[in-house]
Amino acid sequence: MSTSDTVWFITGASxxxxxxxxxxxxxxxxxxxxxxxxxxxxxALVEQAPSRVMAIRLDxxxxxxVAQAIQAAVARFGRIDVLINNAGFGLVGAVEETPMxxxxxxxxxxxxxxIAVTQAVLPTLRTQRxxxxxxxxxxxxxxxxxxxxxxxxxxxxxxxASEALAQELAPFGVKVLIxxxxxxxxxxxxxxxxxMPVLEPYRDVVGGTRDFARSMNETQxxxxxxxxAVIDEALxxxxxxxxxxxxxxSIAAVRSHAQTLLADLANWEARATDVKVHDTSAA
Length: 283
Hints:
The protein is an alpha/beta fold. It contains eight helices and nine strands. Helix content is 48%, strand content 15%. The mean pLDDT is 93.
């Protein structure tokens, strides 16, 4: 397939990673279905290449809009090659500090919303017998820290579904890529980050996370456009990885977490495997 035929469908394209992914795809000559809850925020993207860029209203938590958005993109471009589930937001707060409606909101957008969009696009990908689903997770989808419980819970759920999805779609020639970025200059730590009310017992426990989240805004080392290029390269590789960590911070954190997991397995293996039912029938 030529570059000009490739179609990227991107959720949450009005800012941050989503906007960078769209800008990169436009520069590459791809066709782009850019979606956002407010299409007015997509006007500048459309202006870059009106014949190749389509702005679509999409709130991923609204099933009717999900179906309409996929149908509109296929009607315009005839296909979808890469779905990028990017819509989301961050929130900081201890588990006890985070109201249930915030837990549900995080799951509705970053998990259920992504699954809904994926389900809507799968008939197209299966029929084509080619394409990819890219789920934007986080290093927080592999591990979590005090204050990021709700955010990580949504990303953990997305990664669990993605692992199964990768196996289900492999026979159809469709790839699944889980992206786990570290700190990138996307605005995540600005207006897209919700801070929960502080409960005094957790002021010190979560305080470091709150301070880090505030201080990193617009100081992150990661370039979203470079992230888009690496994702594209991974998708075009003969063997696309299931997970792609982006940024030295993500790689270091995931490696350290994996090493701790392996150490715990080794330390407790003898005791943890000594749990078989005692067979007395031979006595």
